[in-house]
Design a protein that fits this description.
The complex is a heterotrimer of chains A (490), B (368) and C (366).
Chain A (H helix, E strand, L loop, with lengths): L1 H30 L4 H6 L1 H8 L11 H16 L3 H9 L5 H14 L3 H10 L6 H9 L1 H6 L1 H16 L12 H12 L8 H9 L8 H8 L6 H9 L7 H6 L2 E4 L2 E4 L7 H32 L2 H16 L2 H12 L4 H8 L15 H24 L4 H9 L4 H29 L3 H6 L7 H10 L4 H25 L10
Antiparallel strand pairs in A: 1-2
Helix pairs in contact in A: 1-25, 3-4, 4-6, 4-10, 4-11, 5-6, 7-11, 10-11, 16-17, 16-20, 16-22, 17-20, 18-20, 20-22, 21-22, 24-25
Chain B lengths: L1 H15 L1 H8 L3 E5 L3 H19 L2 E5 L5 H11 L6 E5 H9 L8 H4 L9 H5 L9 E13 L24 E4 L5 H7 L8 H5 L2 H12 L5 E4 L4 H8 L4 E5 H10 L4 E16 L6 H14 L2 H7 L6 E2 L32 E3 L2 H20 L1
Parallel strand pairs in B: 1-2, 1-3, 5-6, 5-7, 8-10
Antiparallel strand pairs in B: 3-8, 4-7, 4-8, 4-9
Chain C lengths: L8 E11 L5 E11 L3 E5 L6 H9 L6 E6 L2 E2 L10 E4 L11 H11 L4 H14 L15 H13 L5 E5 L7 H18 L2 E6 L2 H7 L2 E6 L2 E6 L1 H6 L4 H6 L4 E11 L2 E6 L4 E6 L8 E6 L18 E10 L3 E8 L2 E9 L12 E4 L6 E4 L2
Parallel strand pairs in C: 3-8, 3-9, 6-7, 7-8, 13-19
Antiparallel strand pairs in C: 1-2, 1-4, 4-5, 9-10, 11-12, 11-14, 12-13, 14-19, 15-16, 15-18, 16-17
Helix pairs in contact in C: 2-3, 2-4, 3-4
Classes of the chains: A mainly alpha (490), B alpha/beta (368), C alpha+beta (366).
Chain lengths: 490, 368, 366
């Protein structure tokens, strides 16, 4: 009962965290491996590939192309083929336009011959009623899976477009699916008369060569690279995004290291960690004396210092960062002053921005409060008598500080460092604006994949790795320093 | 899992855009997404204000165009599209159309014909680069240079960016491969008509990066359109690329010692898309606005406020004077024959295919 | 003013003044001299300047005027860590990030003492405070009393010749406090160290000290051994502050043979010993200890003056009886009587006659 009430009390927070924090993280983890789009868009093609049918060579045979035609026709009607093209284009350049082009061409490919031949066997093949009764009959549906799928897909996309399928004429591609089913049907003896008769007739049908047709749309359909990509990425879950995120790639033949001129994430991860450490270090060096001063001064002075420390909090991120630009650029305030003081000459103006230095300066400034506040709140609780005791025991000012005061302030450093490090590891606006090429972080690439390339799977994989690195570092920190030694206040 | 995810996204999104949702559901309001700044302002003056006056419908401006594709995708996943009309560049329109996030438009049915009766599809012509796209303006990514920093030799050729001997100093280029790769090849001796064939090959990509490598230390890479104008105004760079409208504003409105370098500038389009999945009522309202805002006169009107060329052929003769400066706008249009002697048209299909690949190489090259 | 009667002065305050803000003096003209081996307590209400004096001695505050000397040497300009004074702080100030052993070894390490010698000293110091088994403990694992002992051991481990204690027992409960008082006294005597002890608890001061300096208003009001302090307070503040005391106000009517006759404001004449009064007509506060009040005339002289009193309250307290009387207009006149056989027990409302020996009644400043 007690527990239940406690649970009830925290349930709003729990729900809030679940919805705004846990769920997005779970979603991100899921997206980093999810790859259902291939299977969902090209179900029959993928099923054939998975069952190993007709794929003795890398570029498959007619059966797969025939299935591809049916899949592609429906996908094009639903406008899903370009989405898949975009997805596969992440792995192999050119697939995007290949799919866009093929979607248009598939619609125009003349396959009327199938319909004619079926109607010759029995005109009722041309009637919706025949198809509907087959669709309602589960035995027939089992026997003609692709045809029934095509028929239902046809109805669905018509309804989605606001048309009534009962008043429309059946599309030709449905008959291609029917042909594929009947050809594959081994035993038609159980089936009804219509299907038996048709099954007997199809081996003599005049057919369209879909492989040829597709290669006619675009010669890339005959290219091994395209099929390798499709076949590599046909499973519903893939480790491909993660491999990309660590500069490897998943290929038809197995894993391989990306060519050197495409490797970037390893560099960025290392750079992000390194620079975050440097920023954390700078924040400690700058923040410790301030926090010390604040905790040892009268309240009024401490408050003034506090306001100055918090000032960056109260200005917008962009304004702050742009201000640094004005300060640091080559025609900026600092360089102008140096030139005026004759410390550097006009030609030797220092490059202080659009590089790592600029990022470190601007980010240390922005994150400093996150170091100072925990430090201050811990230092405030260290009584002066500790230092006095140390001095009375013979310690010099420095020894009293280093052996007694400093160790007691370490929990504040720990808390501040964790805050600053984790915040800086995920920062991207500031590095984007002042980082140039050498001062950008992994988060800039994540942002790029989220908002520009729309490769959310890769972004999710990068984000997951970042999360894992943070957790790992947290664990290491716990092992070395002990998380009990982190205090945000007395 | 999936249902839960969708639910959570939906709830999160609703929370964030609660105001927008209520706004969109109200019968007399419409949320239009654009780029903000001077550009949104020109649309406000040329389209929104007259339309609001005429119909009493309230238009809410959302300045999210630079992340419109990602946001539309998120809204679509959450099943709650709160935008009524979105201003995007053509390449984004193509992607949105590919992703099924933008509705296909029958241009002749939705849009007004030219005053002489030419159907809209002909008046816009080949600028309709996607079935979902309604072109609005033609802009170009061109170079501007500091007149006081180039000595007595004003650059006339785009390859000036690679000539650091004649024109020393920093240059600003956009932090992406698009346009830069083309200029690099062009200045490395590749014929204009072969540029994309070369760029489609590994060797061509390496060649372009190698050419860019000759000035890598002299480049400040920008990611926001406002960067280059600022860098030029501060004298941080001697020349830099940006949108021609931004340069116009530096030169004419702020009177900075900056001039245009009209050579090998890249034509691109900006226009409207209607998000897929709007209710019939909202869709009808948007179509009414579109018919109004993209007619010949309104498109020409926008050029009074910003130096981008109207996308309709029939609008070109109607382009007049700048609303405040009173200068003739026609010579400042990227479409003006004097300016358009040597131009590129953004190759949408090529970049749709090669963007991911070349971008990875470009970023890896930058990070080295 | 330097008191050389008790031998060579080890700690000396010579006209020391202290002001924090440059206007008001917290310590006014302090003169104090103590010989080696003495246990001296600074006693006084809060704000009386006693802690400031201690801090000046330790070096954490600097004197505004005057000299402080240790073993004949001026220490005004010597920083605290070079003074070699052991100190026990009010809240012990044991370093929480170190074990007991590390805390004790700290002053020795700083003195660059060898490891073996260090360990030996730490061990001995712990044994001295009967904490030999606790060396490896963390500070947070110790009780208040244990921490007190460790703090004491740490202040002594480096053999300082002078140890300062700033209300070291203030945080302990009564029983433990009393126990520790004896313990500290024993250790101080054993080691023959000089101790300056600050407290606001007079019982503590009286029990432990060789001499007590009573502070008030930035001055030492009286510096004397405990019995003298109790029995012969030199002014009314000391009389009030030390032990229980009855005060009656009046005017000196006559001085003769080391006795003063005082007419009380509330009526009646009493015999007193003049301490701070010297002439007839002077106002005075008369101080009588509750246990020195007599009820019968048998112990008083024939001509002794007595006062009439009304019993207001009678409290049985076990070992003693405590009677509250109205005497000469004072409703808070307390009398303590031993619970002896045949001792009278008063009833409220009873009218009685009280008196005292002139030597027990001191006429002090008004």
């Amino acid at each position: 009962m007690q527990k239940l009430r406690a649970l009830l009390l925290i349930s709003p927070l729990l729900a809030f965290i679940l919805i705004t924090f846990i769920a997005p993280i779970a979603d991100m983890l899921f997206r980093s491996v999810e790859n259902k789009i291939v299977e969902e868009t090209l179900p029959h093609t993928v099923a054939l590939i998975d069952s190993g049918g007709d794929i003795e060579t890398v570029v498959p045979g007619e059966k797969v192309f025939s299935a591809l035609y049916v899949d592609m026709f429906v996908a094009a009607e639903k406008k899903e083929h370009t989405r898949l093209g975009t997805r596969l284009n992440y792995e192999e350049s050119g697939i995007s336009s290949l799919f866009r082009k093929s979607g248009r061409r598939v619609d125009r490919l003349d396959v009327e011959v199938y319909r004619e031949q079926f109607e010759n066997i029995d005109p009722s093949w041309g009637e919706i009623a025949t198809w509907q009764s087959l669709a309602d009959n589960s035995d027939a549906s089992d026997m003609l899976p692709r045809a029934m799928w095509a028929y239902n897909a046809w109805r669905d996309y018509l309804i989605a477009d606001g048309d009534n399928p009962d008043e429309e004429e059946l599309e030709d591609f449905i008959y291609v699916a029917l042909y594929d089913d009947l050809i594959a049907l081994e035993d038609a003896s159980e089936a009804g008369d219509l299907i038996q008769r048709s099954a007997n007739a199809v081996p003599d049908f005049e057919t369209v060569n879909f492989k040829e047709a597709f290669i006619g749309f675009d010669k890339d359909w005959g290219a091994e690279d395209v099929w390798k990509t499709i076949r590599t990425y046909s499973p519903p879950y893939t480790e491909g995004y993660f491999l990309n995120a660590i500069d490897l790639q998943k290929e038809f033949e197995g894993y391989s290291v990306r060519p050197e001129n495409e490797r970037i994430y390893g560099v960025l991860f290392m750079r992000t960690l390194f620079m975050s450490l440097v920023i954390t270090g700078c924040a400690i060096l700058l923040g410790y004396p301030i926090a010390w001063l604040m905790s040892n001064r009268p309240m009024r002075e401490a408050n003034l210092l506090m306001i100055m420390v918090l000032l960056p909090f109260w200005t917008s991120l962009l304004v702050r960062t742009s201000a640094w630009k004005v300060m640091l650029q080559q025609q900026g305030v600092i360089n102008d002053t140096l030139v005026w003081l004759n410390i550097v000459d006009e030609a030797g103006r220092l490059v202080l921005i659009n590089n790592q230095f600029g990022t470190i300066v601007a980010m240390t400034h922005i994150l400093l409060p996150f170091m100072v506040l925990p430090l201050y709140s811990v230092m405030r609780t260290i009584p002066e008598t500790y230092t006095r005791a140390a001095k009375s025991l013979g310690a010099t000012n420095w020894t009293a500080f280093w052996r007694v005061y400093f160790p007691l302030s370490v929990p504040g450093i720990g808390a501040g460092s964790i805050l600053v490090f984790i915040l800086s590891i995920g920062y991207y606006i500031t590095p984007e604006i002042v980082g140039g090429t050498t001062g950008t972080f992994i988060s800039n690439r994540i942002a790029y994949h989220i908002s520009s390339s729309l490769n959310w799977g890769l972004a999710a994989a990068l984000g997951t790795i970042l999360l894992a690195v943070v957790l790992l570092l947290y664990w290491v920190y716990d092992r070395i320093v002990g998380i009990d030694n982190v205090k945000l206040g007395g | 899992m999936k249902v839960f995810t969708k639910l959570s996204i939906a709830i999160a999104f609703t929370a964030v855009t609660a105001t927008a949702v209520t706004a969109a559901d109200m019968a007399d309001e419409m949320t239009i997404v654009s780029w903000g700044g001077a550009y949104s302002n020109s649309q406000m003056k040329a389209y929104h204000e007259p339309y609001m006056e005429k119909t009493g419908i309230k238009i809410i401006n959302d300045e999210s165009s630079n992340e419109a594709v990602a946001k539309l995708r998120a809204m679509d996943e959450a099943g709650n599209v709160t935008w009524d009309l979105v201003d995007v560049v053509a390449s984004d329109a193509i992607r949105l159309c590919d992703e099924g996030l933008a509705a296909e438009i029958d241009h002749d049915e939705v849009l007004a014909a030219a005053p002489d009766g030419t159907p809209a599809s002909e008046d816009f012509g080949e600028l309709i680069v996607s079935d979902c796209f309604i072109p609005q303006i033609v802009y170009s990514t061109a170079f501007g240079y500091r007149t006081d920093m180039v000595g007595d030799k004003a650059p006339t050729d785009v390859c000036a960016i690679f000539d650091t001997k004649t024109w020393p100093g920093k240059r600003s280029l956009e932090k992406r491969p698009i346009n830069n790769m083309e200029w690099a090849l062009l200045c490395d001796g590749v014929a204009k008509e072969d540029v994309y064939d070369v760029l489609a090959t590994e060797e061509g990509q390496e060649q372009a990066l190698a050419k860019l490598g000759t000035i890598k230390d002299d480049v400040i890479w920008w990611s926001a359109g406002a960067d280059t104008p600022q860098l030029l105004a501060d004298g941080e760079v001697v020349m830099g690329s940006t949108y021609n409208g931004r340069l116009f504003s530096v030169i004419e409105e702020q009177n900075q010692p900056v001039a245009m370098l009209w050579d090998a500038q890249v034509f691109d389009l900006d226009g409207w898309i209607v998000p897929a999945g709007l209710s019939d009522e909202r869709k009808a309202r948007v179509m009414d606005y579109l018919k109004f805002a993209t007619d010949t006169q309104r498109l020409a009107d926008q050029a009074k406020y910003i130096s981008y060329g109207p996308a309709r052929k029939s609008s070109a003769p109607l382009v007049g004077k700048h609303a405040e400066l009173g200068i003739d706008m026609a010579p400042h249009m990227p479409t003006d024959p004097n300016n358009a002697k040597n131009t590129f048209l953004y190759n949408y299909e090529f970049w749709a295919d090669y963007r991911d690949d070349i971008d990875a190489k470009f970023q890896a090259w930058l990070a080295q | 003013m330097v008191d050389t009667a008790e031998g060579h002065a080890f700690v000396e305050f010579d006209r020391v003044q202290k002001s924090y803000d440059g206007e008001t003096l917290v310590v006014k003209d302090l003169n104090l001299s103590m010989p080696k081996g003495e246990f001296l307590t600074m006693l006084g209400p809060s704000g009386s300047g006693k802690t400031t004096c201690l801090m000046m001695l330790a070096g954490f505050e600097t004197a505004t005027h005057g000299d402080i000397r240790l073993d004949g040497q001026g220490i005004n300009n010597i920083p605290p860590h070079k003074r070699g004074i052991g100190m026990v702080f009010q809240n012990y100030a044991l370093f929480p990030h170190m074990t007991v052993n590390e805390n004790l070894a700290f002053p020795l390490e700083i003195r660059k003492m060898g490891k073996a010698e260090r360990e030996e000293k730490v061990k001995r110091a712990l044994e001295m405070v009967q904490m030999g088994a606790f060396g490896a403990r963390r500070i947070a694992q110790l009780s208040g009393g244990q921490q007190q002992r460790i703090a004491l051991a740490r202040a002594l481990v480096f053999d300082p010749s002078l140890v300062l204690m700033d209300e070291p027992l203030g945080a302990l409960d009564k029983q433990l406090r009393e126990h520790m008082q004896f313990e500290i006294k024993r250790i101080a005597d054993d080691l023959d160290i000089t101790v300056v002890y600050v407290t606001h608890d007079q019982t503590e001061a009286l029990t432990m000290s060789d001499r007590v300096a009573v502070f008030d208003d930035g001055r030492i009001q009286q510096l004397a051994p405990p019995d003298q302090l109790y029995e012969e307070p030199e002014n009314s503040f000391v009389a009030q502050f030390i032990g229980e005391n009855n005060t009656l106000e009046g005017v000196v009517e006559e001085i003769r043979n080391d006795q003063a006759l005082v007419r009380l404001d509330g009526g009646g004449l009493i015999d007193t010993t003049p301490v701070n009064v010297s002439k007839v007509g002077e106002r005075t506060k008369v101080s009588i200890r509750p246990e020195r009040v007599e009820f019968g005339r048998d112990r008083l002289g024939e001509d002794a003056h007595t006062l009439n009193a009304e019993v207001l309250e009678f409290i049985y307290m076990g070992d003693i009886f405590r009677t509250r009387l109205r005497v000469a207009g004072n409703d808070d006149f307390i009398v303590k009587t031993r619970n002896a056989v045949n001792q009278v027990r008063f009833e409220p409302g009873q009218q009685i006659e009280i008196g005292w020996l002139a030597q027990d009644c001191r006429a002090l400043d008004a």
